Predict the 3D structure of the following.
Amino acid sequence: MSVVSRTVPSVPVRTSVETWDAIVESLTAPDQAARTSLETITNVAAMLIAEEYTRDAPIVVMPASGDRVRIYTAHGTAAIESEDEPPLATWPLADPGWRLSLPCGIDDIDDVRAALQPYPFVEVRDVTDGIAVTAASTPHAAGSISINYDELERS
């Protein structure tokens, strides 16, 4: 499995809600059910972006098939100096069975997990933790996988 990385300019170039909208647009076609699902969590996702958790720890998209996608956000001067990256080659959330992992600071994690509990496609992780993917979240996995961010950065 390959990993594709993108950085999306955020505050002050665009608001955190506009940043989330740009991320959703990069992951889904306008008529996909996944777009509606992602739009339901806009407020929480925008809060995580505004807190800049996504600056150093990515939003991780785990599609049912295809490349995993890591999405970072740029803030402040980095956002002003950055440009939007090219679109992804495919819509990673076109097939059902995808999952999304959002980074969160330890001070907010319990509240964010409670707010996102009704949405089974989202997991919330501490910004200092790796990503655990269980067999239930990826239909093709035989066991569980732990992702080491340091190793991902080397690719």
The longest strand covers residues 3-9.
